[in-house]
């Protein structure tokens, strides 16, 4: 089978919607990365079977985002072997911190003695490349304890929950609205030989967690505050990323009735806000 790829440059705040639209229009895999020419643009890469008319689809996607939204795209054609080689060239092992690496499934670890999280990139959000993911991983490496129960909310590839388990957490669960993400998390958990149950949010068990991580968009984080409060234990950690500094300040205000802020980590324009729930 031959394949084709729709590669679009968009504003970061449109990434979640466009990803949902791409899967709704039969994308087989979706990945994204920061644009090399502008930090305010992301590049999204969607894989389709060759019989999908991408020249017809692209204007539909642009209209769904909104007529004033930035949307520049190109189409590339691949034979099956070419696509696999392209994907493998895009992702190489990433050193997150001393002794912690993210390693694509087709690569051998560069430091076999380190903690290596094996991942199949390109099938869901969370490859370890983005600063927001890196900050969450570094926080886990610093803070995780063997008694912790962790919830990876918006788990994508499962990278944060799987990392928590390999760093020593007692248990970790994941949840995502995207069925592709749930499948990707299960596959990556199998690669890493860990037990990482994943659920649609409507099916998430009624449990309490010491740590909740959510690396998703600002507006969604605000909407989820009551949910975080429900699932987090008193004095538990709420680690929120996927936001810039201005959004972090606004998010802190929304959290104030139930959570107090402990730290704000920053890498470039991206932030990770660490808060704790008040005691009952």
Protein architecture, described:
The chain is an alpha/beta fold. It is built from 9 helices and 14 strands. Strands 10-9-8-11-12-14-13 form a 7-stranded mixed sheet. A 4-stranded antiparallel sheet has the order 2-3-1-4. Strand 5 and strand 6 (100-104) form a beta hairpin. The protein is globular, with a radius of gyration of 19 Å. The relative contact order is 0.11. The mean pLDDT is 89.
Sketch the topology as an H/E string, one letter per element: EHEEHEHEEEHEHEHEEHHEHEE
Oligomerization status of the protein chains: single chain
Please bin the fraction of helical residues.
Answer: 25-40%
Structural class: alpha/beta
Strand order of the largest sheet: 10-9-8-11-12-14-13
Averaged pLDDT: 89
What would you call the shape? globular
Radius of gyration: 19 Å
Q: How far is the N terminus from the C terminus? A: 58 Å
Outline the biggest β-sheet: 7 strands, mixed
- Low-pLDDT stretches are none
The total count of helices amounts to 9
Strand content: 25-35%
How many strand segments? Answer: 14
Give a quick precis of the structure.
With 280 residues, the protein is of the alpha/beta class. Helix content is 33%, strand content 34%.
Any chance you could write out the topology, listing elements then pairs?
Elements: E1 2-10, H1 15-24, E2 29-34, E3 42-49, H2 54-65, E4 71-79, H3 80-90, E5 94-97, E6 100-104, E7 115-119, H4 131-143, E8 149-153, H5 159-166, E9 171-175, H6 179-192, E10 198-199, E11 209-215, H7 218-223, H8 225-231, E12 232-244, H9 245-255, E13 259-267, E14 270-277
Parallel strand pairs: 6-7, 8-9, 8-11, 9-10, 11-12
Antiparallel strand pairs: 1-3, 1-4, 2-3, 5-6, 12-14, 13-14
